[in-house]
Amino acid sequence: MQIQVVKSKIHRVKVTGADLNYIGSITIDEALMEASNLVEGEKVAIVNINNGERLETYVIKGNRNSGEITLNGPAARKVQKGDIIIVIAYGIIDFEEAKTFKPALVFPNENDNSLT
C-alpha cells in the first residue's frame, strides 16, 4: 500500500508579491527551494495564515537569496503582499517507508524570508 505524506514544507514565509497578470504559479527563492527539497514545476499546496485560503499551484524558481515569494495568476487573488503562508508538497511512498520518512521542513525568518 502507498500513502501520501508531507515531503516538503516552508513554514510561515512572508509573501513578497502577488502578480495577477502572470500565467500562474508561485515563485520561490531558489535557496528556499533547495532547503525544502522542492523542484521547479512541482505541485504545492499553499495555506494562507492571514485569511485561511488554501490553493494548489506549481513552483517557479526565483532568484537565489532574494527572499522572493510571489503568488502569480489567479492565486494572486487569494493572497496579499505581506501575508504569511505555508508551502507544502506531498509525496506518495510505501506505507512501511512512511513510518521512518523525514520531510524537509524549513522555518525561514518571517522578516526577510532568509534561512538564517
Automatic annotation (TrEMBL):
<dbReference type="GO" id="GO:0004068">
    <property type="term" value="F:aspartate 1-decarboxylase activity"/>
</dbReference>
<feature type="binding site">
    <location>
        <begin position="73"/>
        <end position="75"/>
    </location>
    <ligand>
        <name>substrate</name>
    </ligand>
</feature>
<feature type="active site" description="Proton donor">
    <location>
        <position position="58"/>
    </location>
</feature>
<dbReference type="InterPro" id="IPR003190">
    <property type="entry name" value="Asp_decarbox"/>
</dbReference>
<keyword id="KW-0456">Lyase</keyword>
<comment type="subunit">
    <text>Heterooctamer of four alpha and four beta subunits.</text>
</comment>
<keyword id="KW-0670">Pyruvate</keyword>
<feature type="modified residue" description="Pyruvic acid (Ser)">
    <location>
        <position position="25"/>
    </location>
</feature>
<keyword id="KW-0704">Schiff base</keyword>
<comment type="similarity">
    <text>Belongs to the PanD family.</text>
</comment>
<comment type="pathway">
    <text>Cofactor biosynthesis; (R)-pantothenate biosynthesis; beta-alanine from L-aspartate: step 1/1.</text>
</comment>
<keyword id="KW-0210">Decarboxylase</keyword>
<feature type="binding site">
    <location>
        <position position="57"/>
    </location>
    <ligand>
        <name>substrate</name>
    </ligand>
</feature>
<comment type="function">
    <text>Catalyzes the pyruvoyl-dependent decarboxylation of aspartate to produce beta-alanine.</text>
</comment>
<protein>
    <recommendedName>
        <fullName>Aspartate 1-decarboxylase</fullName>
        <ecNumber>4.1.1.11</ecNumber>
    </recommendedName>
</protein>
<keyword id="KW-0865">Zymogen</keyword>
<keyword id="KW-0566">Pantothenate biosynthesis</keyword>
<feature type="active site" description="Schiff-base intermediate with substrate; via pyruvic acid">
    <location>
        <position position="25"/>
    </location>
</feature>
<dbReference type="Pfam" id="PF02261">
    <property type="entry name" value="Asp_decarbox"/>
</dbReference>
<keyword id="KW-0068">Autocatalytic cleavage</keyword>
<keyword id="KW-0963">Cytoplasm</keyword>
<dbReference type="InterPro" id="IPR009010">
    <property type="entry name" value="Asp_de-COase-like_dom_sf"/>
</dbReference>
